[in-house]
Amino acid sequence: MSNTSTLAGKAALVTGASRGIGAAIARRLAADGAAVAITYSASPEKAQEVVKSIEAAGGKAIAIQADAADAVAVRAAVARAATELGGLDILVNNAGVAIMAPLADLSEADFDKTFAINVKALFVASQEAANYLPQGGRIIHIGSVNSDSAPFPGLSAYSMSKGAVAGMNRAMARDLGPRGITVNNIQPGPVDTDLNPATGPFADTLRGLMALGRYGSGEEIAGLVSYLVGPEGSYVTGANLKIDGGFDV
Ligand SMILES: NC(=O)c1ccc[n+]([C@@H]2O[C@H](COP(=O)([O-])OP(=O)(O)OC[C@H]3O[C@@H](n4cnc5c(N)ncnc54)[C@H](OP(=O)(O)O)[C@@H]3O)[C@@H](O)[C@H]2O)c1
Q1: How many domains does the chain have?
Q2: Measured CA distances, 53 to 18, 65, 115, 117 (Å)
Q3: How remote is the CA of residue 178 from the centroid of ligand 1, in Å?
Q4: Which pLDDT score, from 0 to 100, does residue 1 have?
Q5: Cβ < 6 Å from ligand 1: which residues?
Q6: Domain range for 67
Q7: What is residue 47's three-state secondary structure?
Q8: What CATH number has the domain bearing residue 227?
């Protein structure tokens, strides 16, 4: 647990947190003092590793299987998190997929799957979470710099989805502002995960586009989440915030 415990007494749900950025966010919010629920779809062992690492550090965590492509499962996961954690103060919509292919090769099924997981699930989870979030509640979406830039071919579906998140974010902040709930979209640049390994085929191209010339870590993204969901982030809402090592500046 951190010395500050800025989130003591709070409950958070992080979607897609069995691996990668989501796992780093879950660990950080737990270190800040929150009780944390995570969702996963295909990696139960990895999800349990995240839970156990949080418990080993003195925190509380539960894992819930919920395919983000299944709206019924997403709603049920939000409700279960709120019930088992005794409420819900923070929702982090992190689960996402990147299906990349040239326009001619992207199928409509690829497009629909991308939209279901990267956009509709965020809408559904936020709508359900709004039934529980109190004054001071927080919603974070994990978007991408690819909402505004496509540095190589194959990003039609992925960029579409992250652009949709940026628009939805602004509108959701308007809807929930009167209740004192903030809504923000964190837009990472390249982060070293299974989705975009620092040793992958695009890595050198991406490094060349960044002022810092390196990939970010999940922990660096989690630090921004921690700020936005903590007490110091209370006046930030509707923001689409890039955290990208100076990508394409
Ligand atoms: N890495 C980057 O460079 C980068 C850059 C910008 C934005 N992002 C965004 O950051 C978020 C996390 O990316 P990441 O790099 O950490 O990806 P990742 O390493 O592939 O991890 C994805 C996580 O989401 C979960 N997930 C995937 N499909 C799911 C589904 N249908 N239902 C529920 N959970 C699902 C996975 O769990 P299971 O294994 O259990 O399915 C896993 O925990 C995504 O929204 C991504 O678009 C990433």
Answers
A1: 1
A2: 12, 18, 32, 27
A3: 31
A4: 45
A5: 16-22, 39-43, 67-69, 94-98, 117, 142, 144, 188, 190-191, 193-196
A6: 11-238
A7: helix
A8: 3.40.50.720
